[in-house]
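ok trying again, last paste got cut off:
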Amino acid sequence: MTLLAFGVGGHRYGIDVGAVAAVVPVPPLRPLDLAPGWVAGVFDFQGQLVPVVDLCRVHGGCAARRAFSTRIVVVPYRLPDGAARHLGLAVEDATDVVELDAAALQSPGVRVEATPWLGPMGADTRGELLQVVDVARLLPPDVRDLLFA
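nice, full thing came through this time. structure:
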């Protein structure tokens, strides 16, 4: 399994590269008035306004730091009606593509209801654990409806 590896709150995560449309430097984001703090704003991507979720804030920390390795990962997000819209994920340290043996991935042993998008874990070639992010399960219905009204 090939993953785009990135950091959130000092921990490593990965998204299947097949679920990534683009990885872009952080563009100027237009804030959305009175939106929750984890909504970093929107930006124009190929003529479409794309909402950006700051995964660092989602995980209870502060905003993703402004650094060279901070990126917006653009992923197609499938809506209940079958349409796909782009979603931006602000992440830190998005500098590596890693290979993990899908058969060696393991459940962390604890299921946290508040984070259904976090999947199994596996070690990269350096022995560092990465947890797989399931983009399809990332947004609860109320958040999805807020971002894609």
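cool. The longest strand covers residues 84-99. The two ends are 33 Å apart (CA to CA).
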